[in-house]
Amino acid sequence: MIQLRASDSFLKVVSAMKRVSALVLCEGSRDAEALKAVAGRLGLAEVLGNVAVTDAEGIATLMRNVLPAALRLIVGKVASRPVAAVVDADDAEPGERVRSLYDSLAAHGYRVSEPRHRCPSVWEARVVRGGDELPLLVAVNGVYEGPFDRFGIHELEDHVAYLKLLEGRLTEEDVSRASRSSDLVVKDDYEALGGAAPERVRRAFSHFECLLRALAEGATR
Predict the structure, then answer these.
(1) Domain check: are 81 and 93 in the same one?
(2) CA distances (Å), 17 to each of 132, 150, 220, in order?
(3) 140 φ, ψ to 5°?
């Protein structure tokens, strides 16, 4: 997987799209790091080929600037490639977050097909402008089961904390005492992803596995 810096110009993004199979826009740098770690841990890095991953530096920037600009410079200018976004649900329902992201593209002249569930927490739609289109996938971070369901904010850290719970590094009591998952996660926990058991990574980050497999297939299903 190819890491593009947030400071890279979009001309570089377009140039990259000529030689990569997909572009993933992540809400933050931690999302990009975790996605790459999951791909490596599940043995998907080689299957994916060249997928470019970049940090959009926040949900507002991703929705208002980065995603529309990336689409404007890609649609119709390079062969159709899947584009994906990784975002936190925050205080919204996952479906609401996805709808708001797709709806935000209408203001930029894009038509978006009705989103369909690819798998839990991953949606797919076709983005159309003029006679050109490409698939846009959205993966929403958030765990809605067990002790995590009561949190009012759902985020990437839900999945990191869930992995720690599966590994025995957290207890359900620890989770019940927290107000959100970010209270339970430290920097070293992201680094530990690279050594976690694949079956536990698969369970904690099932939405990432689904997204990565969809990108590997070229979102043609």
Answers:
(1) yes
(2) 16, 40, 17
(3) -110, 125
Q: Which long-range contacts (C-beta less than 8 Å, at least 24 apart) are formed by 77-80?
A: 77/14, 78/14, 78/17, 78/18, 80/132, 80/133, 80/134, 80/135
Those residues whose C-beta lies under 8 Å from the C-beta of residue 68, and which sit 6 or more positions away, are 104, 105, 108, 110
Find residue 84's DSSP bridge partners. 24, 137
Question: Regarding predicted confidence, which is higher, 80 or 167?
Answer: 167
Backbone angles phi, psi at 30, to 5 degrees: -65, -35
Q: Please state the rounded mean pLDDT for residues 137-162.
A: 97
From CA 60, how far away is CA 42, in angstroms rounded? 31
Q: Are residues 17 and 86 in the same domain?
A: yes
For residue 196, tell me if it sits in a domain. Answer: yes
Establish if 221 belongs to a structural domain: no
Instruction: Report how far residue 89's alpha carbon sits from residue 148's, in angstroms, rounded to the nearest whole number.
Output: 13
| Buried residues in 75-87 as b, exposed as e (16+ CB within 10 A) | beebebbbbbbbb
Task: Give the closest residue to 217 by CA, choosing from 121, 95, 141, 122.
Answer: 122
The count of structural domains within the chain is 2
**Banded pLDDT at 175 (limits 50, 70, 90):** very high
Q: What is the mean pLDDT of residues 45-66?
A: 85
Handedness of CA 170, 175, 179, 180 (dihedral sign): positive
Query: Is 6 part of a structural domain of the chain?
Result: yes
